[in-house]
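pinging the channel bc i need a second pair of eyes. not urgent but kinda urgent?? the chain im working w is below, pasted from the shared doc
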Amino acid sequence: MSTAQKKAICLYFQVHQPFRLRRYRFFEMGHEHYYYDDFMNESILRKIASNCYLPANAILLELIRKHKGKFRVTFSLTGIVIDQFRLYAPEVLDSFRELAETGCVEFLAETNSHSLASLMSRERYELQVRVHRDKMVEFIGYEPTSIRNTELIYSDEIGSWMAEMGYKAVVTEGAKHILGWKSPNFLYCNAINPRLKVLLRNYTLSDDIAFRFSDKQWSSYPLTAEKYASWIKGLASSSELVNIFMDYETFGEHQKKDTGIFDFLRHFPDLIIRKTPFNFMTVSEVADHYQPVSLLHVPSPISWADEERDITAWMGNELQTAAVNKLYSLSDRVGRCNNEQLIRDWVYLQSSDHFYYMSTKFFSDGAVHAYFNPYENPYQAFMNYMNVLSDFEIRLNSVCPLNLHDEEVNRLSTAIGDKERTIRDLQDRLARLEKVAARAAKKKAPAAAAKSTTAGKKASAAAAKSTTAGKKASAAAGKTAGKLSGTRVATAKKVTATKTKTVKKKTGTR
């Protein structure tokens, strides 16, 4: 198959586990300063390492060696999960380092804390990305050239920051409300800084594996490697690339081994390579080999979470908003302190998971939130987190006391943050209304044109009728004039003849 016919398929896996908090009660504030459930964190990580990370990494390494570089894959590892690997499962870190050494695996930059910093402050966000980059170089031996944000959160503004930091490409969600009629199966670029290439997740094909693989009620169950490869092959005539993005824990943890998920992972890449016009590429390779088809306008933040594909999974209710605002109101003072323990806790408390647990969503999204949630309800999650955060603030006050200037800055920062979110919401609503108005205008335009054409035809017909009537009138007038003229001539001839006779008579008499 010629190179010109080749398409790209990009596999990207997110790897993340938070430091879950222990039950921290109100009366412990000011006395107990350790916040984490070490037993839960270690047992969960070791279980996932055994069920997912180690066996899946072994399969990927086998595929890379078998296909001699034709199989390629992209990962992102949060700074927090790297810390957990170092504490509880160093062999997992070794296996990722071994994958990096093959040259067939790319690792993306992101926030160190898996945080929402990009929604709060550019300065805080860029600092976290720099810390994460240094951690990737130190522990994986890899310096990222492309990037992703926490839970694929992205907007035009955030993308422009990424471009200015020197990153060539970003991965995000192929959200319907952003794409409209466009397809996620092409490369796009940032609307503010087109140097940043944007790869969009094909959420249907991604979720077929991540969520529907073992669903016996699904119409396409069971999902075999052959069936999946045939679906991708069917996109070749209408697509340039297919982006399959998901949590790495899909393999062996969310979808258990007995579902056949590892057999699927082992065989579908082989079918893609042998039977389709698609090449496996990493995110940066896609950015290097393809040109964007257009700008992608994303005025308000999107993500890959929930049906809305926005940020309401973490900032969708008053509990979440209050917790996020309280946390980031402390950031300036944390930046001025040199207490290592405080800084470590600051990193772990920023994890977006803590706010995800506070979601009050129900129905299908609520089921997903409950699956990952160690709390009985969102209110318990909120109270526990705020107790921890209150103790953290007490410790911060002892190291870096609050002054009136800090209070005013915090108050204004919170007010500005609220206004910025309101503006983003209004911009999003305006963009949607403009799209509705544009569609309505398109529908009205043909009808108006048809009406105008009909009126024009009627006017032309009337003009033609008027012209015909005018011609008839002219003809009639001409005919009448002709008759009158003939009558006058005849009369004149008669008069002349009469005069001639009279003269002759007079002459004869004389």
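so The longest strand covers residues 7-15. and Confidence is low (pLDDT under 50) at residues 480-496, 498-510. — does that match what u expected or am i reading it wrong
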